[in-house]
Amino acid sequence: MKKKLKQFKGKNKFEIAVYFVLRILIIFCMIREIIRGNIINGILCVISLVLLLLPIIAEKKFKIDIPPAVKVTIYLFIYSSEILGEIDNFFCTVPYWDIMLHTLNGFLCASLGFSLVYLLNAADDSINLSPFFVTLVAFCFSMTTGVVWEIYEYSVDCLLGTDMQKDEYVNAIKSVDLNPKKENNVVAINDISYSILYNKEGTELYKLDGYLDIGLHDTMLDLIVNFVGAFTYSIFAYLYIKNKEKYKLAGMFVTKKKPV
Fold first, then answer.
1. Is the confidence at residue 1, as pLDDT, over 60?
2. Rounded CA gap, 170 and 237, in Å?
3. pLDDT tens per residue, range 75-112
4. Most buried by CB count within 10 Å: which residue of 3, 63, 84, 228?
5. Same-domain check for residues 137 and 25
6. What's the whole-number mean pLDDT along residues 115-140?
7. Per-residue pLDDT tens for 207-260?
C-alpha cells in the first residue's frame, strides 16, 4: 500500500482524490456486474481500471509532467464513457451525453497532440516551430483521431452487427436515387410521418416513426463537436505559446518535461 501511495507523492490532492474515488466506484460496479452474471461488463470495468493507470505510466515512461487538470479530465472521461455511458446506458438515456464526450475527446486529443510537438520544440534548439504551426498540428492530430474513431465505429458495426453509430429518425430525405429518369437532380420527400419495412415475402416487419437514418447524422455530429473541442484547445494553446505569463490558465492543459 505504501508503495502505491509513494507514486502520488507531490501530486495534486484533488487529482489523487478523483483517481481513488473513481477506482472504488469502478470496482463496486465490477462486483455488481459479476454478481448479475454480466461478464462482458465486468471485463469492461477491468479495462477501465487499466486505462486509469495510463497517465501515470506515461509520466514515468516518458519522464513528463501531465498537468492535474488534464489527468482529472482523462479520469472523468474514462468513467463517463466506459462505466456511465456503456454499462449504465447513459448514451441512450441521457440527452447529449455522446455529444459531450466527443467534444471533450476533441479537447483532450488536441492537448495530447500539442504536448507532443511542444515538448519536441522545447527539447531541441535546432527546432523552432511557429506558434501557429504547433497549434495547427495539435488541431489536426485531434481531428485525425476523431476520424479514425468513426472509422472504427463503422467497421465494428459492419463486421459485428453492433450499433455504435447510433441511428436517428428523420422526417425528410433528399436523393438523386429517387429520380425516376435517373438524372442528377435531387428529389425531396418531406413530412414523412412513418415508414414500413417488409421482408422479401411481403410480410410487414416494422412500422417506423419516420425514415431511419443509419448513422450519418451521428457520425457527422461527432466530427463537428470534435472540431469544436479541438479548436477550443488550439486557441488556448496558441495564446499560451505567445505569452506564457499572461495566459497562465492555458498552461494548466500543457504537458511539460520533468525537471532534471
1. no
2. 38
3. 999 999 889 988 999 988 998 999 999 999 999 999 88
4. 84
5. no
6. 80
7. 999 998 888 889 999 999 999 999 999 998 898 888 877 777 667 777 766 655
First to last CA, the chain: 28
Domain identity same for 61 and 103: no
Domain that holds residue 200: 168-213
Instruction: Tell me, yes or no, whether 46 and 113 share the same domain.
Output: no
CA dihedral 69, 75, 79, 81 (to 10 degrees): 70
Distance CA 182, CA 24 (A): 60
pLDDT at residue number 8: 54
State which of 69, 94, 119 marks the end of a domain: 94
Q: Are residues 87 and 145 in the same domain?
A: no
d(CA 177, CA 169): 20
Task: Identify the three-state secondary structure at position 195.
Answer: strand
pLDDT of residue 151: 93
CA distance 129 to 141: 16
Look at residue 3 and tell me if it is in a domain. no
Report the predicted TM-score, pTM, of the whole model to 2 decimal places. Answer: 0.80
Instruction: Clarify whether residues 27 and 74 are in a common domain.
Output: yes
Distance in angstroms (rounded) separating the CA atoms of residues 253 and 135: 13
SS3 245: coil
Q: Where do we find the cell 522545447?
A: 122
DSSP string, 99-142: HHHHHHHHHHHHHHHHHHHHHHHHH-TT----HHHHHHHHHHHH
pLDDT of 137-178, one tens digit each? Answer: 999 999 999 999 899 889 988 887 877 788 888 999 899 988
